[in-house]
User: Fold this.
Amino acid sequence: MQATTVLYLVVAAAVLGGIRLLSSPHYARWGNGLAAVAILAAIVLVMAQHNLLTTSSVLTAIAVGSVGGAALAIQVKMIQMPQLVALLNGCGGAASMFIALAEASSPLASAVLWAATFAVTGLAVIVGSFTLSGSLVAAGKLHGVLNEKAIILPQHSWLTVVLMAGLAVYLVAGALSPITGIGTYSLILLPFSLALGVIVTVRIGGADMPVVITFLNAASGLAASLCGFVTENALLVACGAMVGASGVLLSHKMCRAMNRSLLTVFLGFERQSSQGQEQEVAALHSHGDVGGADPVGLSVELLRDAKDVIIVPGYGMAVSQAQFKIWELAQALEARGARVRFAIHPVAGRMPGHMNVLLAEAGVPYEKLFEMDAINEDFKRSDVGLVVGACDVVNPAAINVPGTPISGMPILKVYDSKHIIVCKRTKSPGYSGVENPLFYHDNAIFLAGDATCTMLSLIDGLSISKSDGENGDE
Ligand code: NAP
Assistant:
């Protein structure tokens, strides 16, 4: 075996090891570092092997990329991470698109007549540019500069299908009997692929956004892998395939968590008719909340007596940066002898793993975090279900009301808890725009306000009732 092949295998194994380590919160930082070093080694290796650029230009490119990336990562707030991830997916797509176009327009490429080379290069251009434009639209929606809701153009599904079919036919026909050189062939594919990325992504909004992010992640990996074929680089094929495969697995997991399929998400089937759902949801508002004049005081009483508390964090926790105070409250409850666990819905927040990252940042041990399936049946045995800044992931309308943007999505069954405490600024709907009847349950207390401030009030209330108890004991 050649020395380069061995080095390629070592780098590929290091990337795989890095990804593996990411699955453990204790070693995730190491995994991230290992994968980053492996990718750097891959760049150096390929540059040295093919003698592609001068050392100084490679170093300059690495320095510019590193400084730009670091500046962006330092500046970005935790709640802006989803759009950063979408942008980085777009960068992956753009890199693949440019590499494929550069290969296709190189002087040597004009002599290429192989159908397979045409097809693979064309596919790399399609997937790379689709990923670029789709990711930019997704980032725009997540950042609020584009309409966050699904934008549906006239005959949108047909437009998507016709564009996809047209690209597929041209890809195959143009490769089998080329009437132009590979450079022109690739350039013709470019605008249509960019348009496809926009058309597919603009129609997705609301609760389906997590699937778009993971799908574009998979697409950026696939684009890189195809570029590996174009440039005949096995390392790029392997690393791209790993990213692509993990993106596909994550998309599958997200779809399963939302009871959706990729086809229904991308072609916009189901969940379209929300007509009449407002009335149906309103009909579920059978009772007012039971907070009375002093909802915080009542909540403190419930928490003080609770033996089993399940906390459900949502996007509002991220906005408020309430994870630190939530953990402080959990510790205060544990000190009083309660069992406290965190229930994590797979699409809680605005990106996969959002809640896990924030709670880990606050120091919550990973053993206290439970996935939906592992904890859902325990709500009925819990004394208090404490919802902090979550809405869609605990919305019973997903089960009870057909035709809403979240209908069919499995939810965390907080409604089963003996008592429910909801901490949120208002009773307005979450990301999907569907009203939440949980806030009106007859065993629910609604604590209106910023999540961090509410957590502070609860912590203060518990500490006062503790010192009262101690004084009473004296
Ligand atoms: P959600 O349904 O969007 O609800 C979050 C709630 O947080 C809002 O209703 C908001 O209500 C409240 N909030 C905002 N700022 C707050 C603050 N400072 N203090 C207290 N509350 C605050 O969130 P979720 O239950 O986590 O569900 C996630 C939703 O996002 C799902 O629909 C999911 O499909 C979608 N999504 C997820 C991802 C992903 O990958 N995880 C990506 C994109 C979209 P007020 O304004 O009334 O306070």
In short: The chain has three domains: 1-75, 79-267, 287-473. The two ends are 80 Å apart (CA to CA).
